[in-house]
Design brief:
alpha/beta; TIM Barrel; Immunoglobulin-like; six-stranded antiparallel β-sheet; about 25% strand; elongated; binds beta-D-galactopyranose
Length: about 375
């Protein structure tokens, strides 16, 4: 079994787009280690679109790294990453061209999978642009799923068809380990909120070995880079990161990690949040909130050790108070249990509540607790 927890790593796209190079990847690998990301559980360094030449090698038909960007080739980069105990990811596309108009893998799936394996690739993100007319999307993912298995190397298969063709209903059968379910994230509050709202009802099919991928994080971008737009403040980044954790979504960082600030570093390495994300059972959260204001969310998630994650999210423009009525999650008052919660983002420590809990949450922000039941 290749994957039994949501994959964690860093991907070039959100910040760098086509501006990628050997030195960027090596510097980011070094930063990855210096920041303690590896110790926190992050593993994959992933090069997204725009790494190859515009055409295949005319003699071998193979993909060729663009020599100006990657003068030492991909094997050398893979070695650099592997020597540091990390894993190496690359990108291709199910259609004839990639989304940024480089050669895609259509009808070259087995050759390309062999090439990736020979370079030491551990992870393949597989996009969905330029699909030939009349070809079924699911069939293209079946092919690459098969090709990766045949390659003789363990390669994580990260499908990226943006939720087309009801992807959640068939993707697991192709051998994929994660599947993008939405269009591209932008670095603003509306974008990540829209993404989580669209997927909340569909989390029941995201499960160990094949996780719903709600896109690379914009946490720490502050408006810089390709998907930068207006950027977010730290309250929104806290909410975004916590929501990805409640959703058991892959945690692929997308900021320039060479310049990550301390606020971002401590958020993305928060042990308790990562523990929620990496829970082996990956159960979807239950949701309640304030019935008269749909911008307040309360999420309650079963964890594999018998504790629970409890999150309060304020997606409103004003500070506000939100609630957890424990009976909404299956704990009626007459059952005779109280709930002890431990604050994992702030310094409230431990407190015990009976029947319900009220929490003040600033606009755009969240509060997250680990909860356990205690018999009265
Ligand atoms: C999009 C994909 C992005 C990025 C981009 C590259 O289709 O959703 O995450 O990979 O293509 O061109």
């Amino acid at each position: 079994m290749l994957v039994n927890r949501p994959p964690m790593g860093w991907n070039t796209w959100n910040t760098f787009g086509k501006d990628i190079s050997d030195s960027l990847i090596r510097e980011s690998t070094d930063a990855f280690l210096d920041l303690g990301l590896k110790d926190a559980g992050y593993q994959y360094i992933v090069i997204d679109d725009c790494w190859s030449r515009r055409t295949r090698d005319p003699e071998t038909d193979r993909l060729v790294p663009e020599p100006e960007k990657f003068p030492y080739g991909m094997k050398s980069l893979a070695d650099y990453i592997h020597e540091r105990g990390l894993k190496f990811g690359m990108y291709s596309c199910a259609g004839q061209r990639t989304c940024a108009d480089y050669p895609g893998s259509f009808d070259h799936e087995f050759l390309d999978a062999e090439t990736f394996a020979s370079w030491g690739v551990d992870y393949l993100k597989y996009d969905f642009c330029y699909k030939p007319q009349g070809v079924e999307g699911p069939w293209l993912y079946r092919r690459m799923g098969m090709a990766l298995r045949a390659s003789g190397r363990d390669i994580l298969f990260s499908a990226c068809n943006w939720g087309s063709d009801d992807v959640w209903s068939w993707i697991r059968s192709t051998g994929a380990h994660m599947y993008r379910s939405t269009g591209d994230i932008m670095d603003n509050a509306e974008s990540y909120r829209k993404i989580v709202k669209s997927q909340l009802p569909k989390l029941g099919t995201s499960a160990p070995q094949c996780y719903n991928d709600i896109d690379m994080l914009t946490v720490g971008m502050y408006g810089k880079g390709l998907v930068g737009t207006t950027g977010c403040g730290d309250a929104d980044y806290r909410s975004q990161f916590a929501l990805w954790c409640f959703f058991s979504a892959p945690l692929m960082l997308g900021c320039d990690i060479r310049h990550m600030n301390e606020t971002t570093r401590s958020l993305v390495t928060n042990r308790d949040l990562i523990r929620i994300n990496q829970d082996l059972e990956a159960r979807p959260p239950m949701k309640s909130g304030r019935p008269w204001n749909e911008n307040f969310w309360t999420l309650f998630k079963h964890l594999d050790d018998g504790t629970y994650a409890l999150g309060f999210f304020n997606m409103d423009e004003k500070d506000g108070e939100t609630y957890a009525n424990f009976s909404d999650f299956g704990l009626p008052n007459h059952a005779g249990y109280d709930v002890t919660v431990r604050d994992i983002l702030g310094d409230e420590g431990e407190q015990t509540y009976r029947e319900y809990m009220r929490v003040k949450v600033p606009a755009h922000d969240c509060k997250v607790y680990i909860a356990k039941l205690v018999k009265r």
